[in-house]
Design goal:
This protein is α+β, with helices and mostly antiparallel strands. It has 3 helices and 6 strands. GO terms for molecular function: acyltransferase activity, transferring groups other than amino-acyl groups.
Length: 137
């Protein structure tokens, strides 16, 4: 056998590792029904101008991305989208929320919305910080 190191990951190699991990995890995890969660704000032309991407799984909602276009920031749109995502998560049976954000993004925004800092990855990727938050819904 031989260990191979590469900086170019091929799709088929990623699929092999993912499928192996998924097979192992699926046999052991209690809730096998993760569900995508998208919340979007669209303008009158149908263009998405703000949105949230995440998923719910068991007791948790995982917020992957929350974005508001530059011209609409500070108009409570991010707050409204986050609140809608949390409400939908509660309707799906979630009790907790998890997300991460960089120091230049929105740690204070999430604290304002009741999120508690559980971990900070300092010097990431070089001089910044990456914050990890949870919230009881």
């Amino acid at each position: 056998m031989e260990i191979k190191v590469t900086d170019e990951i091929k799709k088929e190699d990623e699929d092999i590792v993912y499928k192996g991990l998924l097979e192992y995890n699926s046999a052991r995890i209690e809730d096998k029904n993760p569900k995508d969660l998208g919340v979007y704000l669209q303008d009158e032309t149908g263009k998405t101008v703000a949105g949230l991407i995440g998923h719910t799984h068991g007791n948790w909602v995982f917020i992957k991305y929350l974005w508001v276009s530059e011209e609409l920031r500070r108009c409570n749109i991010g707050s409204n989208i986050l609140n809608q995502a949390e409400q939908t998560a509660k309707e799906r049976g979630c009790k907790y929320s998890f997300l991460d954000t960089f120091s230049f993004q929105a740690p204070e925004f999430y604290k304002k919305h009741g999120y508690k800092e559980v971990f900070v990855l300092e010097n990431f990727p070089v001089t910044g910080s990456r914050y990890y938050f949870t919230k009881t819904l």
